[in-house]
Amino acid sequence: MNISASLATFAFMYKIVKPLFFSMSPETAHHNVTGGLRRFNKIWGAQALLKALYTVEDKRLEREVFGLKFKNPVGLAAGFDKNAEYIDDMAKLGFGFIEIGTVTPRPQPGNDKPRMFRLVHDEALINRMGFNNQGADVAAARLKNLKNKEGLIIGGNIGKNKVTPNEEAVSDYIYCFNALFDYVDYFVVNVSSPNTPGLRDLQEKEPLTKLLNTLQELNLKKANPKPILLKIAPDLTDSQLDDIVEIVMNTKIAGVIATNTTIVREGLQSDPAIVQEMGGVSGKPLTKRSTEVIRYLATKSNGAFPIIGVGGIHSAEDALEKLDAGASLIQIYTGFIYEGPALISKICKGLLSK
């Protein structure tokens, strides 16, 4: 059996087992899948098999963005590997880069369970995880001990602890920045999650400018400054997006990730009892809006800074739309859950056939 046929078989198998995973709570399924992948990778020859099945290696896929060389433009979005536990395992599935986090200075349990919900009819998720993570120092220790990055770019998504008031938020971001600096290739400042009370207030012009300027000043004092990106919400108005463009230009950060989850609930077809759960929506309902934000930022800035597109990418066509709108790279998460690991290679092959 050739590789293409094997990949098709594995994609079909994922469709067969997906109902089993979807019969579990989302968090239970997540832990079972990641744990199972780790156990599978310990079997002799398993890593080579996964790499052969899912990794598309072609020079034409390489991208150089904000001074870093990506072996392909398809990344794993933050939230999947919050604590840098599964980088080696996920790398075998063909990702060009992996973003860990969101990481906070101190460990925190996040919001009460249940805190993630599937909107199956919408091919979406609602999450109100609340930055559950083991803390920046634990993530840094794991990154330090990574055995083989295999050319993989690693991003560090950083945030503030829930108990830290916004007036003191800068200190939390500084702590995470310093803790992870030696072990990640780029940083993402997350002020756009809807699940930490008051966090999105930091997207306002004055506090955001202060935060980014502070991190940039610290960054430029380092011997090898790292790219700093800003992750924004899809729910910003055009006027607020204009402010984002101005802030990025003035603070001279490396770029923007567009977008985080949305608090909008319009047009959802799933069980109303689930739809009304608090949290951010990801997946297909976000496809159009995230692309609109990418296009607006790229047009308004005249392509002055790179954009990583994320939100509702469930196919190669979705990825191409983001890239055509002005994204330099893309990230997946919810699409990865609904479509399975073959999505990465499908996107890469779609780019090569364009």
Automatic annotation (TrEMBL):
Q: What class of enzyme is it?
A: oxidoreductase
Record-annotated Dihydroorotate dehydrogenase catalytic domain positions: 61-352
Q: Where does FMN bind?
A: A78, G79, F80, D81, K82, T102, N157, N190, K231, T259, G283, G312, Y333, T334
Q: Which cofactor does it need?
A: FMN
* Catalytic reactions on record: (S)-dihydroorotate + a quinone = orotate + a quinol
Q: Which CDD domains does this one have?
A: DHOD_2_like
One example GO MF annotation: dihydroorotate dehydrogenase (quinone) activity
Q: How does this protein sit in the membrane?
A: Peripheral membrane protein
Cited InterPro entries: Aldolase_TIM, DHO_dehydrogenase, Dihydroorotate_DH_1_2, Dihydroorotate_DH_2, Dihydroorotate_DH_cat, Dihydroorotate_DH_CS
Single GO cellular component term: cytoplasm
The note on the cofactor says: Binds 1 FMN per subunit.
Task of the protein: Catalyzes the conversion of dihydroorotate to orotate with quinone as electron acceptor.
Under HAMAP family, the record lists: DHO_dh_type2 (MF_00225)
Give the multimer and partner information. Answer: Monomer.
Q: What is this protein called?
A: Dihydroorotate dehydrogenase (quinone)
Lineage, broadest ranks: Bacteria, Pseudomonadati, Bacteroidota, Sphingobacteriia, Sphingobacteriales
